[in-house]
Amino acid sequence: MMDGQTWRVGFSCLLLLVLVGFAQSEVVRSCEEVRKLFQGRHLGPVKGLPDSPRAGSDLQVCISKNPTCCTKKMEEQYQIAAGQDMQQVLQTSSSTLKFLISRNAAAFQETLETLIKQAENYTSILFCNTYRNMALEAAASVQEFFTDVGLFLFGADVNPEEFVNRFFDSLFPLVYNHLINPGVTGNNREYSECIRLARRDVSPFGNIPKRIMGQMGRSLLPSRTFLQALNLGIEVINTTEHLQFPKECSRALLKMQYCPHCQGLTLSKPCMGYCLNVMRGCLAHMAELNPHWHAYIRSLEELSDAMHGTYDIEHVLLNFHLLVNDAVIQAHLNGQKLSEQVNKICGHPVRTPTQSPRCSFDWSKEKHGMKISVRNGEETLANRRKEFINSLRLFRTFYGGLADQICVNELAAADGLPCWNGEDIVKSYTQRVVGNGIKAQSGNPEVKVKGTDTVINQIIDKLKHVIQLLQGRSTHKPDKWELLQLGSGGGMVEQVSGDCDDEDGCGGSGSGEVKRTLKITDWMPDEVNLSDVKQIHQTDSGSIFDTTGAGHSTVTESMTFTVMGVVMLLPGLW
Questions:
Q1: Which segment of the chain is annotated as a signal peptide (predicted)?
Q2: Of the chain's two ends, which shows fewer C-beta atoms within 10 Å, N or C?
Q3: Can you tell me the distance from the alpha carbon of 275 to that of 281, in angstroms, rounded to the nearest whole number?
Q4: How far, in Å, CA of 332 to CA of 314, rounded?
């Protein structure tokens, strides 16, 4: 049994320990650590900061019944810092999404620029290797056409119907002068201009210009819309990253983040429920973006899925030179009829034969990076889009779950640990936790959400607009300038076309023509090897004599041959 004296000694020791504990607690609640952190954050001058806790009757937000390490000036600086911290957290939370969209927008634009350059090179090579006498004169029109393609794709106010027509208007005088009636126009600019203006009346290229307009409408416009939508996505993220918070939110952020400092609790973190109430209140207007953002990503996905075949810009651009070749063949084979029509419209010019300069396209300089005979699946633009959409799909509910993400990943204390509830350190938060969105904030105990946010409403309107554009393109609705084909007409165009399907109005002719696909390698002949084709010569009357013994035939039967699967006119005969 413990006697009375022993008990009194033990009690005295315990009391001493308690007193020491209180003394240590008082040391911890000094303002030294608060001063260090305030100075380390460069929130303001250290002069005037309390060395020890003081009465805080002048404070507006960080009100406490206990002595405080904060002054009114510190509280004001803390409120500014809380807003800056929030913007930094928003930028960190959206950085992965922003990088995903901006990186792919830049990559898609770069890829499209490369495709445009490749298509321009293929068209230049076609002229240089097959229609050499007109190649230099055609160079400016080819360059202008693809410049316009790029301008349209990247948002300029140019009309595809106009630049397609302009290209074929400029091509007709060259074809007429070098293939149909060599040397007729010579340097007679007035007569060449008359032929140019007559192109739309005499239709020397059949329905190929209209087919190209249709293909441009089905491929350029969706790609342009896709790029514009990606840029809008970046704009949405940039705007929400720098959103200005109302006064009620700023005070709530101050109370959650820095009011604990005033009590010397510099290492405390807010309780999860408390953090959710504050963040869901501050981001309530931003959460209203969620259904529209979800629809935006879904519409991007639908448009991407629809961009295939003749809706695939890669297919259209890299096959353009083949259709140009078909157009030239069409005009040459109908040369006699076209000559009569031009004579009626422009009169009979004086024949002044001239020798046109020939081009010398340096294939060795241009072939680098242009081998697409076998395109690996992962290299195609369609597969890049698919990979991007698969990554973007993970962010469909980004704005709806942003408040929760910030609390879980950045701000709140882990479950089971003591945490700050806005007034003191507690085991758990006992207030009601509200949901996301404006309607759910009526019962928020931490933040009062009032009115609407003009900036958020403007973003929602922009998203609604681009969603309509995306959905319109994905359902293949023709734009005002897109010309859809009404039928084949059974003409020569369908028989020589190498890029023809039912959507282009040239299917099922039964002519047995060869359907070709683009097979361009690093080989391009400087001269066609006549041993590879039927040896033919053009007579003065415009007909063909077959030296292999097949006999005399008409122009429409024997004027073309095939090299590498591409129907061509025989070079060097005009």
A1: 1-25
A2: N
A3: 10
A4: 29
Q: CA–CA separation, 104 vs 220, rounded Å?
A: 18
* Calculated CA dihedral for residues 521, 526, 527, 528, nearest 10 degrees: 10
Secondary structure of 520-541 in HEC code, one letter for each residue: CCCCCCCCCCHHHCCCEEECCC
CA 114 to chain centre: 15
**298 within 8 A of 470, measured Cβ to Cβ:** no
The region of weakest confidence among 50-54, 271-275, 357-361, 427-431 is 357-361
* pLDDT confidence of residue 494: 28
Between CA 427 and CA 407 the distance in angstroms is 17
Buried b (16+ CB within 10 A) or exposed e, 359-384: bebebeebbeebebeeeeeeebbbeb
Burial of 304: CB neighbours in 10 Å, binned 0-12, 13-18, 19+? buried
Contact 524, 129 (CB under 8 A): yes
Mention every residue, 6+ apart, whose C-beta is less than 8 A from residue 485.
207, 210, 211, 214, 503, 504, 505, 506
Closest CA to 195 of 335, 329, 327, 341: 341
DSSP-derived pairing of the beta strands 560-563 and 551-553: unpaired
Query: Greatest CA span in the chain, whole angstroms?
Result: 141
Q: What is the pLDDT of residue 356?
A: 58
Cβ 431 vs Cβ 274: under 8 Å = yes
Q: What percentage of the chain carries pLDDT values higher than 90?
A: 52
Cα–Cα distance, 500 to 398 (Å, whole number): 43
Looking at residue 41, its pLDDT comes to 82
218-254 as b/e: b if 16+ CB within 10 A: bbbbbbbbbbbbbebbeebbebbbebebbeebbbbbb
Percent of the chain with pLDDT over 70: 71
Three-class secondary structure of residue 55 per DSSP: coil
Task: List b or e across 418-427, with b for residues whose CB sees 16 or more CB atoms inside 10 angstroms.
Answer: ebbbbeebee
d(CA 37, CA 355): 84
Q: Taking 80 as the threshold, does the pLDDT of residue 242 lie above it?
A: yes
Q: Are 429 and 415 in contact (CB under 8 A)?
A: no
Cβ 290 vs Cβ 89: under 8 Å: no
* Joined tokens for residue 252: 């709530």
